[in-house]
Amino acid sequence: MLKENPNLTICKAPSFDIRQEILVTEVPKLGMEAALKAIKEWGQPISKITHLIFCTSSGIDMPSADHKLAKLIGLKHSVQRFMIYNQGCFGGASALRLVKDLAENNANILIGSAIFADGAAALVVGSNPIASINERPLFQIVSASQTFIPESDDMLIGKVREMGIEYYMSRDLPKYIANNIVQCMAEAFTPFGITEWENLFYVVHPGGAAILKGVEEKLGLNKEKLKASWHVLSEYGNMRSPTVVFVLNEMRKMSMLEGKATTGAGLEWGVLFGFGQGLTVETVVLRSIATNTAP
């Protein structure tokens, strides 16, 4: 492929057309792999899925990736689809926020898929799990909110150009996130009377080592608290939108392997953070599930 398309390897060389041809074909296929894996673990028929949320920053085409994925995995023609484009690193958390609202208002099953580069993640989300058919949740989404940090528009910028997508990241990005993380925590947890940050489990988007260190320092956390985020950063790097879902999955896997009482490292309450351009912060309050009831 690279021999046939040498511009893919040359900085600033025009290669948008070939990149798009690759992405519009491969992104739905990558989404299919993640979706089928999530559905298999869920253990229920595909026909029960009523909504599809597809989130990606890769590939722009019509019909879009959500339409193609619905056909690839055999969803009903009446499935309600939502396409989320170019939300960057907070896209996965944005999808969870939308999923929560849909599930609460429709009481139906949903699947969300978030894709970028070589990373894909999928979730099946619903309300009122049915024990008689062995539906076993992993986490409960208690609340979800979005905010942007004032005077931070130039901290992280992405531009679509002939060469693909160009990114500009300020050295001050980790500092801006760290300096605002306590306020985000307080706004999310004050309604529940929670003020001790050490008593929570953490699912934090690993946008880089400096970001994770800044969160640890501002919240007074030891490195074990962000172990799942550090692991994903080390093994996969920053995959943008799906990365935080990788961390969520790592949290539940680590909890079970280590014999913890809940999917949240033995703790009941936790938080999921997504960070991205804007600077936008997605904050999702979670409650864990007892590991002896999780799949």
Automatic annotation (TrEMBL):
It comes from the Eukaryota. InterPro entries: Chalcone/stilbene_synt_C (IPR012328), Chalcone/stilbene_synt_N (IPR001099), Polyketide_synthase_type-III (IPR011141), Thiolase-like (IPR016039). It holds the Pfam family Chal_sti_synt_C. Keywords: Acyltransferase, Transferase. Residues 1-107 form the Chalcone/stilbene synthase N-terminal domain. The keyword Repeat does not apply. GO terms for molecular function: acyltransferase activity, transferring groups other than amino-acyl groups. One of its GO terms (biological process) is polyketide biosynthetic process. Residues 140-289 form the Chalcone/stilbene synthase C-terminal domain. Belongs to the thiolase-like superfamily. Chalcone/stilbene synthases family. This is Chalcone synthase.
